[in-house]
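Good morning,

Attaching, inline, the backbone tokens for the sequence recovery test we're adding to the shared suite. The designed sequence is right after.
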């Protein structure tokens, strides 16, 4: 056997060994990468957390797999706390909101007969009453707004309390949130959401916070959040009454 042929054979054997070693190395690297990816993937706890977040997100919105109920042209579908509701389209605002004009009580879309109404052409936020519905997870079970007023009185933060007309109280308080004095209206005759009356919170001294707000439990697990300009606050009992009437128009599908 020639020395040249021997050297070629040795070279070929070496190349085969190197090639085999490379293949083994690639396979090993692939297995290592797969192991690392598996180790870096979401844990069962993370998956459960994401699933719960998705469940909560879908309580008030249409998600994959949902089959909304069929409704008439004058109706609107709402999904609240995982349940389907049907509302009059003339009051509907977005997917889970209602609104009407004040003081005419005209629905958000205008009069059914197409006739004009006093607020027509005005800035909606100056004349609109907004009601937003959403699920809540026990957030409404804490101290009531009236309890907040009693606390302010007990702590010496009550500036004044007036009764401008029967069944309406107006409280002025010193608040601790740094946004100036608190202005509160209490419709004492409406006790469905608070045994002491429906309470409205307003900030009228600063145009930036020129809004009145309140929230209450409409149905188990569903909260109603109201907002409107402070200039309408003196009509709070009537606004609350109209809001409850409009909410009663919503039916479970």
């Amino acid at each position: 056997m020639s020395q040249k042929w021997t050297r070629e054979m040795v070279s070929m054997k070496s190349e085969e060994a190197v090639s085999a070693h490379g293949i083994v190395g690639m396979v090993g690297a692939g297995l290592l990468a797969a192991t690392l990816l598996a180790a870096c993937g979401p844990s069962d706890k993370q998956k459960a957390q994401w699933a719960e977040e998705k469940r909560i997100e879908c309580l008030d919105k249409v998600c994959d797999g949902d089959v909304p109920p069929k409704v008439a042209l004058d109706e609107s579908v709402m999904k609240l706390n995982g349940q389907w509701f049907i509302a009059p389209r003339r009051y509907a605002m977005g997917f889970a909101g209602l609104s009407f004009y004040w003081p005419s009580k005209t629905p958000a879309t205008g009069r059914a007969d197409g006739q004009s109404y006093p607020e027509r052409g005005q800035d909606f936020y100056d004349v609109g009453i907004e009601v937003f519905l959403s699920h809540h997870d026990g957030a409404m079970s804490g101290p009531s707004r009236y309890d907040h007023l009693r606390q302010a009185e007990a702590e010496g933060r009550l500036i004044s309390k007036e009764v401008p007309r029967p069944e309406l109280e107006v409280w002025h308080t010193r608040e601790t949130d740094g946004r100036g004095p608190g202005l509160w209206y209490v419709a004492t005759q409406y006790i469905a959401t608070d045994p002491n009356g429906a309470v409205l919170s307003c900030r009228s001294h600063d145009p930036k916070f020129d809004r009145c707000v309140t929230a209450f439990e409409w149905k188990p697990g569903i909260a109603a959040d109201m907002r409107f300009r402070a200039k309408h606050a003196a009509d709070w009992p009537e606004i609350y009454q109209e809001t409850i009437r409009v909410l009663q128009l919503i039916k479970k599908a």
